[in-house]
């Protein structure tokens, strides 16, 4: 039996829908903290169980009978919250006798800066648990840079980035989800650490591609990160360190095809 958490989120939803095309619904369990939000899966024959990372008892029941568990990391990056929640998940998996855990870790988790350190800690918990596991060190989502907001860059004719000239190896949520799904059913994933990264491109190439696809030039302008605020400042703060500069072919190997290209991603959002 394959048990999947985070099924109401971007990544988990794609995973469970992909599994439904390959595995009988009777062999799948969807874990949601609000089961009503997963009604569509129940309607398709998937058993939906309640499981909240803040409620250890709910998790042990939710994970019962799991040969494989997809543990989607919590989105709550409030300092201290995720380590507690992830400790609950690993403890419950151990108590429930889960056969293998597949964990959505993050790029740089071996020595993660900032909030990535939560993943470092969770990888340590998994190692210490003695449970067979598979680590998916996901890069950041392409969608954080390639999204319908690019239409504004087309209109202004400019893309402002605080990238310090550093490239990114971002991957689409769909590619990362399908790679995760592949590790839930295939053989040979016990103990594997997958560095899941897309094709490497620069922000200057993003501007050029947006211009090309839109048929209107878009200039790239580099600024210091101090000139940005909110989410862009957060994102470029990581990009400028070179965290995303290195390629890896683990993603395309799991997908069995090339990862989504920059042009494909831009074309999809500017369509
Ligand atoms: N690689 C990246 O660039 C990137 C970007 C964003 C996030 N992430 C990480 O990757 C994970 C998956 O990404 P995503 O885009 O699918 O995130 P998402 O859309 O925010 O989905 C998060 C999932 O976690 C569930 N969840 C939240 N709190 C929970 C709790 N206390 N107990 C049980 N389930 C809980 C949510 O359920 P509800 O529907 O009930 O809220 C949802 O199903 C995120 O949670 C985050 O750790 C990675």
Q: How would you sum up this structure, described in words?
A:
41% of the residues lie in helices and 15% in strands. α5 links the parallel β5 and β6. By secondary structure, the protein is an alpha/beta fold. α1 crosses α7. The termini are far apart. It has a domain at 1-138: Rossmann fold. The model has no long low-confidence stretch (mean pLDDT 97). The structure holds NADP nicotinamide-adenine-dinucleotide phosphate (NAP). NADP nicotinamide-adenine-dinucleotide phosphate (NAP) is lined by residues 5-6, 8-12, 33-34, 37, 51-54, 72-76, 85, 104, 138, 140-141, 144, 173.
Short description:
By secondary structure, the chain is of the alpha/beta class. The protein has helices at 10-22, 39-43, 56-63, 81-96, 117-129, 150-156, 173-185, 203-214, 230-239, 250-255, 262-270; strands at residues 2-4, 28-32, 47-50, 68-71, 100-106, 133-138, 158-161, 193-196, 219-222.
- How many helices? 11
Characterize the biggest β-sheet: 7 strands, parallel
Query: Could you say which structural class the secondary elements and strand pairing correspond to?
Result: alpha/beta
| Approximate strand percentage | 15-25%
Bound molecules: NADP nicotinamide-adenine-dinucleotide phosphate
Uncertain residue segments: none
CATH class (first level) name of the domain at 1-138:
Alpha Beta
Sheet with the most strands: spatial strand order:
3-2-1-4-5-6-8
- Helical proportion? 40-55%
In CATH, the architecture of the domain at 1-138 is 3-Layer(aba) Sandwich
Shape estimate? globular
| Arithmetic mean of pLDDT | 97
CATH topology descriptor of the domain at 1-138: Rossmann fold
For the secondary structure, the number of strands is: 9
Return Rg in Å. 19 Å
Instruction: Output the CATH homologous superfamily of the domain at 1-138.
Output: NAD(P)-binding Rossmann-like Domain
Report the order of strands and helices: EHEHEHEHEHEHEHEHEHHH
């Amino acid at each position: 039996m394959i048990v999947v958490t985070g099924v109401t989120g971007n990544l988990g939803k794609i995973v469970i829908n992909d599994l439904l095309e390959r595995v009988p619904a009777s062999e799948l369990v969807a874990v949601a903290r609000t089961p009503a939000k997963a009604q569509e899966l129940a309607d398709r024959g998937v058993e939906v169980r309640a499981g909240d990372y803040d409620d250890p008892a709910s998790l042990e029941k939710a994970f019962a009978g799991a040969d494989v568990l997809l543990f989607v990391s919590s989105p709550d990056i409030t300092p201290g919250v995720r380590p507690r929640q992830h400790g609950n998940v690993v403890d419950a998996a151990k108590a429930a006798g889960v056969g293998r855990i597949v964990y959505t870790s993050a790029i740089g988790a071996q020595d993660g800066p900032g909030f990535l350190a939560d993943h470092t800690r969770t990888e340590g918990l998994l190692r210490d648990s003695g449970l067979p596991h598979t680590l998916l060190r996901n890069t950041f989502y392409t969608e954080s840079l390639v999204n319908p907001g690019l239409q504004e860059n087309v209109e202004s004719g400019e893309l402002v980035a605080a990238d310090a000239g550093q490239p990114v190896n971002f991957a689409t949520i769909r590619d990362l989800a399908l790679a995760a799904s592949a590790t839930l059913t295939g053989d040979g994933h016990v103990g594997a650490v997958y560095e899941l990264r897309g094709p490497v491109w620069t922000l200057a190439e993003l501007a050029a591609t947006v211009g090309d696809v839109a048929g209107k030039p878009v200039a790239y302008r580099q600024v210091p990160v101090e000139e940005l605020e909110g989410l862009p400042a957060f994102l470029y703060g990581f990009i400028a360190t070179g965290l995303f500069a290195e390629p890896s072919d683990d993603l395309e190997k799991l997908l069995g095809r090339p990862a989504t290209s920059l042009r494909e991603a831009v074309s999809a959002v500017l369509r």
